[in-house]
Amino acid sequence: MSQLQTPDSCCDTSAIQGRRGWSPLVWGLLAVFALAVWIAVYALLEPASRWVVYSLLGLERGKRLAAAVEFFLFETPKVLMLLVPVVFGVGVIRSFFTPERTRRVLSGRRESAGSVLAACLGVVTPFCSCSAVPLFVGFVTAGVPLGVTFSFLVAAPMINEVALVLLLGLFGWKVAALYAGTGLAIAIIAGWTIGRLKLEKWVEPWVYQNQAKGAETEERLTAAARVRFGIESVRDIVGRVWLYVVIGIAVGAGIHGYVPENSLASIMGKEAWWAVPVAVLVGVPLYSNAAGIIPVVQTLLSKGAALGTVLAFMMSVIALSLPEAIILRKVLTLKLLVTFFAVVAVGILIVGYLFNLVL
């Protein structure tokens, strides 16, 4: 789970709380004005991209270069514009869910209910690979069951606002909801399975030697402060991922323009039974994030790849990675690390085969 993979905002709420700002009325008027401008610009993206390609640049319709350039010029601002309001909204939600508060909510929960709650909280709680070890230690020493902790660690990077916005913008709400639902299912089932196996003895001994610290003091943020927290989230997250969005869409544009239709059907199609496990194996060593991989996924589908195979590939890239293994090895023995990866990988395989079978 590389930091780039899940570039979550780690804004300092106390600093935001202390800033003096405009009144709620001013914030509301600015929001209405910004929304109106956003809608107007978004509606002009498609005709503007076509005008640039065919009128300004003078490229010929039906040619590969024209198709690639049009794809890039339309999808890049579209995805970035979708990111901004969603990241802002999630940032406001995150102002209610600090890691410390999440730990308190999950501690003492039964594994079945705790795994469901942990997976849901993982979606809205700030998380990145650099905080994987302290979060794991904090959760375990606070009495959060091991399986519940793993449900959180799987859901946090896999189902993030960047992935959902990109899927929504490129594929529509059905595929985005499908991804969110299956991602949550994998996180819940993986955590429950690890909890049933009673693998606490495979956690590095030093983890349990650390006593959980007392609850941190949390300031109650005003509505204006939460709005500013959302703005800080946009600056932080969009500022980190925009380059990966551009690179991913550029790669996707090249595939869109130059790879023939249905050329990947024989390699990543439904009929190739081995395509799903190969996609997972290929995805694990890749060092990428949702911003970079999802635009590529879109073009793979357009060229004949099966949805289940592509979902399995995307999930393995986002949820499983070598950097993640290196970081988690600090707190997990090799046996537990391998078990964790194996359980999540099996869940991803099941999702891939299931959707290839029914879709």
Write down the oligomeric state.
Answer: single chain
User: Which descriptor suits the 3D outline?
Assistant: flat
β-strand percent reads: under 5%
Given helix and strand content, the structural type is mainly alpha
State Rg.
22 Å
Please give the number of β-strands: 0
Number of helices: 17
Cα separation of the termini: 29 Å
Low-confidence stretches: 1-11, 13-19
Q: What is the mean pLDDT?
A: 76
The largest β sheet comes out as: none
Considering DSSP H and I runs of 4 or more, what fraction of the residues is helical?
over 70%
Topology (elements, then pairings):
Layout lengths: L12 H6 L5 H33 L7 H31 L4 H8 L4 H14 L7 H10 L4 H13 L2 H11 L1 H25 L7 H5 L13 H36 L6 H4 L6 H9 L6 H13 L4 H13 L2 H7 L5 H25 L1
Helix pairs in contact: 2-3, 3-8, 3-11, 5-7, 5-9, 6-7, 7-9, 8-9, 8-14, 9-17, 11-14, 13-15, 14-15, 15-17
Model description:
- The structure is a single chain.
- The protein is mainly α.
- It has 17 helices and no strands.
- Helix 8 runs antiparallel to helix 9 (173-197).
Concise structural overview:
With 359 residues, the chain is mainly α.
List keywords for this structure.
flat, mainly alpha, 73% helix, 17 helices, disordered N terminus, 0% strand, 359 residues
